[in-house]
Amino acid sequence: MSVILQKWQHVGAGGLSAPILPDGCRDLILRDVPGRRPVWELSALQAEPLRASVTYGTRLTGFRLVPGAAVDEAILQDLSHDPLVAEGEILSAVAGQTRAQECIDALQSAASVAEAARSVGVAARSLQRVVVRETGFAPVFWQRLARARRAAVQVDRPLADVAADCGFSDQAHMSREFRRWFGVSPRMLRGSLDLRAQIAQPALATGEQISIR
Q1: Within this chain, do residues 166 and 195 fall inside the same structural domain, yes or no?
Q2: Which of 5, 46, 100, 136 is deepest in the core (most CB within 10 A)?
Q3: Please, what are the averages of pLDDT over each run of 10 residues along the chain (213 residues)?
Q4: pTM score, two decimals?
Q5: 3-class secondary-structure state, position 133
Q6: Are 71 and 42 in contact (CB under 8 A)?
Q7: How far apart are CA 176 and CA 157, in angstroms?
Q8: Domain residues for 133?
Q9: Does residue 213 sit within a domain?
Q10: Helix, strand or coil for residue 145?
């Protein structure tokens, strides 16, 4: 399995900001500002929605990494400024399947931390330590975000059914979680093509790995 979920590009229009939703992933981003030397950045894991803007003409080329991918930030100094070359360098430099990735994969579908731990053959406390050490967030963060994202791709269905199928105590509980993670209610998300397109991209719990070649 490749550590790269998706390759994406964005060119700044200037003066506009857009919401960026938590997706459980970090991105290696090449920021190319006109008149300046391009630089590589590693995005942080988001715990809440934020708004971001890109200056006019700035070109961003991003490589979304699988949740839990282990990245040594020292590679930022050595990556090529040619995205085609950099893609191969990222695949070589970023660790493949890590213990944290394995644990996060299990947490996405497990009903409890104990169940996830059993599925990967470790004690619950061991899973907790691995996930916190490697990602900075506790297992409950990954479970709640995965549940909210699973529900978010189903908002065309009756919302009470979505809430029940995705493990929320009721529709009001799901609404609170949507506002916490996405900044909008389920009905508002249903009516936002931009947010729904973002949710549908390959990331934690909502997208299959795709080819970028």
Answers
A1: yes
A2: 5
A3: 91 82 97 96 96 91 95 94 96 89 94 95 96 96 97 97 97 98 97 94 74 28
A4: 0.92
A5: helix
A6: yes
A7: 18
A8: 98-137
A9: no
A10: helix
